[in-house]
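INPUT
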Amino acid sequence: MKTQTINKKQVAEKTQRITGSEAIVKSLMAEGVDILYGYPGGAIMPVYDELYKFQDQIHHVLTRHEQGAAHAAQGYARISGKVGVAIATSGPGATNLITGIADAQIDSTPIVCITGQVPSHLLGSDAFQETDIVGISTPVTKWNCQVTKSEDIPKAIAKAFYIAKSGRPGPVLVDITKDAQFGELDFKYEKCKGIRSYIPIPKTDPQSIIAAAELINNAKKPMIVWGQGVILGQAEEELKAVIEKAGIPAAWTILGASALPTSHPLNIGMVGMHGNYAPNKLTNECDVLIAIGMRFDDRVTGDLKTYAKQAKIIHFDIDPAEIDKNVKSDVAVLGNSKESLALLFDALNKNSHDSWLKEFKDLYAIEFEKVIKGDINPTKEGLTMGEVLKQINIESKGNAAIVSDVGQHQMIACRYADFNVSKSNITSGGLGTMGFALPAAIGAKMAAPDREVVAIIGDGGYQMNIQELGTIFQQKAAVKIVVLNNEFLGMVRQWQQLFFDKRYASTEMTNPNFVAIAEGYYIKAKKVTKREELAEAVKEMMASKESFFLEVCVEKEDNVFPMIPSGASVSDVRLS
Amino acid sequence: MNEDIKSFTISIYTENNIGLLNRISAIFQRRHINIESLTTSQSEIDGVNRFVIVVNMTETNANKIVKQIEKQVETIRAYYHTDEETIYQESCMFKIKSTLLFEEPQIQNIIKECNARIVTVNKEFFVLEKSGRRNEIESLRRDLNVFGIMQFVRSGRIAVTKDEMKVTEMLLAFNNQ
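OUTPUT
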């Protein structure tokens, strides 16, 4: 009896008796969350009640749609490397998060989504606003769970944050029934330090480093293609050191952009469907292809049967399931890019490949002449998307974070934006989610208020989450919004022109007065239709201390080149 | 380059988690791979479940799928094996009219010859149980079908592998961290 009393006393000292909903908020705060994005509703109201009480410690951003909350959490995570948090009610609130969750899954973005759920005694009864969100979100989450007991809340949230952030990051959803929110528990928060069935970072085999280094040291025409794994692994410096020591030309996937400054002499540009001419073409000329933290997406490789067949492939990745998934590797190096690249650095000989690098420069000159010149220094009457990017570069000096949506403007933004700082290219890569940029830019700006955040969006994608202008206004988020308006769903129209005999089925848009809409939300707004107005308008936007909307009316039927037609070989990249 | 499609037994050691079956079956579904049979039970390790899944696919795909299964947070380890690398059995039950047992003496011979076991007998029916390879069960079903079967049911494959599974070591290594 005596020992029992002592034990009870000890427990009382360490824990607090609180409600499940308070435990949710306290668990989030224990994970260092000071901002979250969401939308209230019936099944999550107890949590909102607690958020009201703790509003001086944790800032809830009311988005105008749950999809906006999920993308804002993504933008927050992508620019900061921290876990983004979104919160929604059951039923439609939860299902509206799904697009953002799927986007985070395919782009390996750490977010935690908390959803309210109907009381546990109603589960399975088709109750009001009941959906099986755990079932729905299973294929698009790294992990998910449903909590029906108050006392399980802290552990579930601890596990959620650990899983979202560790190893290859990803989205996690925790669904919490309303009775678990109302119930009480003895609260004590312990961060999750490990899960026995889960190995976040596989061990790097020293032999694989030796084998990789040997291939690279003996290569005449080595080429690196890096992806977001470098950014997620915080291996930017290690990548740069490897490239410089071995003198290897290095290209990036869309999500790898900004890990190495644009101006770096060994940065040879973007690979993939609308990537640069040289790295695409020379993928089929190199003798060793070193893939780092990238997953050989079909938009990168084109036809796999003709992809880098002449080359030895070295694949660095944290995720064993990526090895040999699309492209068979000769050497696979598992592990965290920061550590494996540091080991590789030690094993590499100092080297240079000047004549090989010149091949890239020569092809760049061709691309410049045939594509880039016309994009950024156009002589025709209509404005181009490329010249808008050029003006933004002039004003940002390469220091802005560029948040792009999906389509032609995205390809132009990723091709032409200058980046000096890592984690600066925030875009929906794998899922290609139109509507991503506006809310993601809000999250990015709130995570990094000192940075300039420029959202570059097409007129189509802008209208998919245009309601988030309300969030920008309410939060005073100083996001700069550029809509490149060609009155078309441009990328689809481009495909219709090239592959569907110009049958422009449902791609032409009759657009509203975008300036009036922005002004309706009390956001400063400007519209540019002539070249001579562009520089001044971009300057004004970038100098603004508040959010600013700039619509640029660009040429209606411009195409993005280079282009690897779907299913063609990387070496068949077209310049026109 | 066209690789042969073979039968593979996929063994998965997992935590006992309510949603995991969904996660695992979704990985097959995405690639349009039909699950021939699926069994789940306790494994040799307390608190660890084991899935035994039989699928027909190429070895390249088996390898990719096993890695995608192993990637799931609550999967401890996943393996694939060919039929030759495993010892496997299925089990089945027949419900048959009791009168036949007395009227058709051949039935008694069939039961004896194929090592089937009578689980229960009552006035209306008797229940026969048999474990073995698919072809043995199929041949028994054909033999009994002549006389009429009231109900037939066959389980999924259960299998143990000839080589060692290093799951216990992995769990111990985690505990000793």
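end of record. The interface with chain B takes residues 134-135, 138-139, 142-145, 163, 194-198, 319-321, 323-325 of chain A (CB under 8 Å).
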